[in-house]
Amino acid sequence: MGSGKTTAARSAATALGTEPVDVDREVELRLSKPIAQIFAEDGEPAFRATEEEVTIELLRERPGPAVVSLGGGAVCSGRVRQALGQRQLVVWVDVDPDTAWARVQGSGRPLASDHATFARLYAEREPIYASVADVTVPAERSEQMAAVLSALGDLPAGDRVLWAASASGDYPAYMGRGLLTAGRFWPPQLEGRRFLVTDGTVGRLYGDAFSGLAARVAVMPGEQSKTVAHAEIVWTELARAGMTRDDIVVALGGGVVGDLAGFCAATYQRGVRYVQIPTTLVAQVDSAYGGKRRSSLPATQRSSKRL
Ligand SMILES: NC(=O)c1ccc[n+]([C@@H]2O[C@H](COP(=O)([O-])OP(=O)(O)OC[C@H]3O[C@@H](n4cnc5c(N)ncnc54)[C@H](O)[C@@H]3O)[C@@H](O)[C@H]2O)c1
User: Fold this and answer.
1) Which site in 10, 69, 238, 254 is 20 to 30 Å from 293, CA atoms measured?
2) Residue 111 belongs to what domain range?
3) Domain check: are 206 and 142 in the same one?
4) For residue 58, how far is the Cα from the chain centroid?
């Protein structure tokens, strides 16, 4: 409620050359009255029963791509979650509760009549949305589904994508088991020669997952490699291998490699693109992500990493 999923559905449908279908609207058509009236005259359980029926029908296989915009409470049904789990790509348009409340208060929606009820619903539903989502898109990017969809490629079951929005550029973050060995860590449309920066330990463990690299640069593992002297080694190796501004630095390792390679990418020829492949928990949940320190601007942007 209030996330902008109708907008996101329209945007996705336009990108896919189809028309979006809205479950709430279909329920209203089926029961021949607006949702507020259904709640008032028939009660929420009656609305939920029709919503479940309509949603499952709409999720059935159909020719060509279909974009279905679900009601906010639809995923509370086990049968709907089961249907979603079978074949569908589920996009969660993630909105913070204050923004959502500011958008829906006073709108006359039955479940947005008071702040306490709204906040409780949000808290109850958020973990359910997180559990069913294959792709998470922040609400402020709900109109930019074409870019999101183009980053998905043929997303295998179990892989997840978080669309990261930052002031200095958006990028996809891919999560899943075996991404590296299966080569599924790369945005499908991203082209350019790849220059790998890693450390000795990680390079030995995972370096074989890469083929066709323009160069490999390995520093000593550990904190002592996060210095300007090591940055100079990396710059020199990149230059020796002929890296240009059209090429891409690939940072494979923990926070040290990510910080060092990011800094080098940001400062090489006034900045080149880079992709982070974080191999430690610290890097996976913290240092590889942009925003707070503008630390991760892979794929589509010139980077501006700070050590
Ligand atoms: N930029 C940021 O926002 C940010 C945030 C948090 C931390 N950091 C920085 O990150 C650094 C710490 O990162 P870290 O904890 O990842 O340390 P690290 O990069 O030094 O890695 C720790 C050790 O683990 C090894 N290693 C890495 N991946 C491995 C794997 N998959 N299997 C086996 N060994 C592996 C490395 O070779 C290294 O010896 C610090 O320099 C810190 O300042 C930066």
Assistant:
1) 238
2) 5-150
3) no
4) 25
The angle subtended at Cα 78 by Cα 76 and Cα 80, nearest 5°, is: 80
Rounded alpha-carbon distances, angstroms, from residue 190 to 50, 65, 158, 196, 238? 43, 24, 22, 15, 19
State the distance from the centre of ligand 1 to the C-alpha of 282, rounded, in angstroms.
Answer: 6
Query: CB under 6 Å to ligand 1: residues?
Result: 199, 201-202, 205, 221-223, 226, 253-257, 259, 279-280, 282-283, 286-287, 293, 295
Q: Which of 96, 130, 150 is the last residue of a domain?
A: 150
Q: What are phi and psi of 227, to 5 degrees?
A: -135, 165
pLDDT of 242-290, one tens digit each?
A: 999 999 999 999 999 999 999 999 999 989 999 999 999 999 988 988 6
Residue 184 one-letter amino acid: R
For the chain, the domain total comes to 2
Amino acid at 264: C
pLDDT, tens digit (0-9, with 9 covering 90-100), for 108-155: 788 888 899 899 999 999 999 999 999 999 999 999 999 999 999 888
Q: What is the pLDDT of residues 224-238, one digit of tens each?
A: 999 999 999 999 999
Per-residue pLDDT, 251: 95
